[in-house]
Amino acid sequence: MTEIKATPAQLAKGIKVPIGLPAVIKVVRSRSRVRLYGMFFDLNKSFLLPSAMEGIRGVKSQYDAHPGSNLLIIGHTDTSGQDAYNLTLSLERADAMAAYLTDKREAWEAFFGEAKPEEKRWGTREIQLMLSVLPEGGNPFFTGEAAGANDGETQAAVKAFQQAKGLKVDGIAGPATRKALIADYMAMDGTTLPPDLTPTTHGCGENFPAVETEDGKRSPDDRRVEILFFDGDIVPAPPGKTSKKGSTQYPAWLAGVSETLDFDAGGGALAPRSLHISVIAVTENNLTPLADTPYKLRLNDGKTFSKVTDANGLVEQDEVRPGDHELEIAGGKTRVPGIPKDLANLKWVVLGAAEPEK
């Protein structure tokens, strides 16, 4: 009997089945992910900086390659704030990304309102940032430093924008000017998904870091957004709007990811670092270092290395990108993060690994 594997999207389009031969169609589900690392958000803010545009275009390209996908947008923070505050902020970042991708202007306008706490509220700096990349393909309205000062240069840039859009020219970025500015910023080429798409948004706060840091530390790599593409239902279903520490859904989502595209604030290649972990196996009575043990390391850029741990059970690899990598050793397999070398005492447990032979 012939087994034919197809995704739900392929089934919807129709597949060819051999005539005269018994066949079983097996539905397989794929899951891909786009991650935006680095300085895409200011501290405490959810405004998507111009540096995020290449990553957003990557989201659009991935959706074009997987049309009809269900999108799960997950926001993250570093550890520089309180846990509850970070959960809310991470969800706001996911919501801001969803609104941008689907041109929901009203959601962005609300961030300029008095209802937002002062540290989260958008203002002159966000106006300057949008004016610094508009009009797209032309000379920017604003060329100064986006420091948030409503100076003469900023007012002149607002006036130039107002004149170009046929608005009242007064140099004041009031509601009408902000609406037009947000609309143009959201309409940048290659950044918009179908208007009828409704992504699911979720916040993980500081609970699932890309890079482990001590509490209270600012980390651009952890200030990130992930977009997961499901070709069916989001499984497992999100545990509400946010995930607390120890939640099992986020690891389960990652376990099903077969493809990852990473973007940083520079538009592509993420800053490389060294991967440095101490590998230990779970044995019956203790945790035993896996010294002098062969392993296979698959990096998230597709490269694979087959090496042996050192006498202390260490796995080291230079020039790896931030994010998760796959380690297979002694019969066990796990995802491991790229760890800076200054965290030399961190140990990584490989579930299912065998105890080294004596």
| Number of helical elements | 8
Strands in their spatial order, largest beta sheet = 5-4-6-3-7
CATH fold-level label of the largest domain: 60s Ribosomal Protein L30, Chain: A
Q: Tally the structural domains.
A: 3
CATH class membership of the largest domain: Alpha Beta
CATH architecture of the largest domain: 2-Layer Sandwich
Residues in helices, as a percent range:
10-25%
Gyration radius, rounded = 24 Å
- Low confidence ranges: 267-272
> How many β-strand stretches?
15
- What is the chain-wise order of helices and strands? EHEEHEHHHHHEEHEEEEEEEEE
What would the average pLDDT be, to the nearest integer?
83
Strand content: 15-25%
Given helix and strand content, the structural type is: alpha/beta
Keywords:
358 residues; alpha/beta; 60s Ribosomal Protein L30, Chain: A; Muramoyl-pentapeptide Carboxypeptidase, domain 1; Immunoglobulin-like
Describe this structure in words.
Helix 5 crosses helix 6. The protein folds into 3 domains: 149 residues, 2-Layer Sandwich (60s Ribosomal Protein L30, Chain: A), CATH 3.30.1330.60; 83 residues, Muramoyl-pentapeptide Carboxypeptidase, domain 1 (Orthogonal Bundle); 78 residues, Immunoglobulins (Immunoglobulin-like), CATH 2.60.40.10. The longest helix is centred in the N-terminal third of the chain and has 19 residues. About 2% of the residues have low confidence. It is an alpha/beta fold and 358 residues long. The two termini are 47 Å apart. The chain has 8 helices and 15 strands. It has a 5-stranded mixed beta sheet with strand order 5-4-6-3-7.
